[in-house]
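Can't paste images in this forum, so I'm doing it all in text. The chain is below; anyone willing to post the predicted structure tokens underneath?
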Amino acid sequence: MNTPLLSVVVPVLNEGEGLVDFVQQLLEFVGEDNQVIIADGGSQDNNFAQLKVLENAKANLYLIRSSKGRALQMNAGAKLATGENLLFLHADTLLPESALKELESFSISPLQWGRFDVCLNNPAWPYKIISWFINHRSRLTSISTGDQAIFLRRDLFEQINGYTQQPLMEDVDLTCRLKKISLPFCIDKPVTTSARKWEKEGVIKTVWLMWKLRAAYARGVSPEILVKQYYNNNKTDEIV
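Text version of the structure:
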């Protein structure tokens, strides 16, 4: 059996309605030759049972239970991966139509990791500005967030021991380590991701919080402290 080009790892936790449809669409998108690995952090909804039924029908779908936490879940999912490349995708993020073609180009490039540009799914101008700043900041700093669908060589992921097991900024930590090894392969065809975080809390408030947390992290403040600020004293069921 040929080695898959790609293993897509999706961390999930209480995603609610739409997760099964998302996984079905993702399976069709990546095709039978590539893996989709769903790493569940202990969901209390009915999605896990529904996905088990789908797993039995799809040879390239793998479902795993893990301790809660994006870093823990993505590391657990990556252990099942057999693809040449890993792609870490959030369950509220859609890949562009050209994603597989772009990833094939990455696969034959000398670069070792990369990410997509991002587009928030709200067409209002504040969200377009936020997307613009995320993409340009990422290009200037070579640091990416999980919303940008980070991808890398599987052997490199194993070499650097995967994600650091911390409750926040695991994506920043990973890409800070990766950029010391290689420049990123930047795909300008954007993934489309949910704007719900900004819509719920307000654009200005959310942007200010993000910058404040990033600055504090850069100063060495512990992710265990920052996560309480991010989730308002941990009153949430979302992945941390």
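The first strand starts at residue 6 and ends at 12. The chain has one domain: 6-195.
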